[in-house]
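Case study 2.
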Amino acid sequence: MPKEYALFVDAESMQGRLRSLHHRLLDPETLLEVAGARGPLGPKVAVADWGVLPDGLSEAFAERGFEVVQVDRRPRGREAGGRRRDVLRDLVDLELLARMVERFLESGDDLAGAIVASGDEAAARAVRLIRERFERPVHVIGVEGAPAADLETAATSYEPLPLRPCEPSDPEGLAKLVLVLEALERRKRFLNFKYIREAVVRKVDLAERSFEGAERLLSDAIACGLLRKIQVEDKYNDGQFFTAYALDRDHAIYRDHGSGEAAPVHEGVEEEAPAIPNLGGKGKNKPSPAEEDLPAAEEAPEPGGERKRRRRRRKRKAERPPEDQAPPPQTAARANAREKKKRRGRNGQHQQDRVGRSYEAPSRFLSDESHEEPVHLEDHEIDEETILAARGDLDPR
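Prediction:
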């Protein structure tokens, strides 16, 4: 009788990777088919914090003979800089390691090896331990697109979970989505998820007009293959890639509801982002050192620029009052405001003397605006009689 394989599933990491990368739900039936291809299966364990996973997933594993293990996130106090703060610690990887060691200690001789389904590279330590200490093969099932370098190195073999095409759950909504995606592809070269979601909320008539409803519709489009994920190299960061989305024009839904046009081709290099002006001084544009070394470029003047400046100068000259006419009250008020601003300090405060009392320059009292005709006196006109008459001490006789 052939020996059996023990199956250990980190359901939380598998569901998280499938949801974030492929907008899929973890299917226990598919997992059993892939694991059963290695040989007969014996004990099966599924570990997760089931409270954060979709409803009904734990029941689906239990119906297929899995031992469902609940792992709670526990708060842990941590001293950082003299301050105490509580953090939630995920113990799924430790529970998975404990279950594997316990199973092989009890009945290791009766097991042909282990099959581990995990999307977390932290499981590599447990995989390496079973291979080295118990000398048993360990096969790992991962998620396509998830980081798996450590798992591939530690495991006997590694294979991603196959993603089968699924039937769309909202064909009517996907038919409306096709027209919106065509318009977006004509407008932009690469489409990210948030950009599409915003357009779906504004343009598509959904039963639930919200971000959650738009995300469910896009998840359905990705799962059925109408919307494809592509990896695009970031031209600003060498070696880094970002995820973009493209409409699959060979899909049956597009053939039925699309325009039938070929994918638009965006030729030429994309425009660079405008450079942030280098501000220096009081908010003025300061040229960079490279620009200072360059000679002044001979640019053509703006059409009509000189003519506009001449018209503005003639207009200001025509509106200026004659020299023999007093300025209007509004002009005088503006001049007084400018003069008063000059007498203030940097922060708009009056000057202060040594004891901190504020005062204004005495020039304020030299100009009395109440006199229409200011009196100008020469030195030879000021005599004793004039001063006494001004003070009222001179006898009028």
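Residues 182 and 280 are 46 Å apart (CA to CA).
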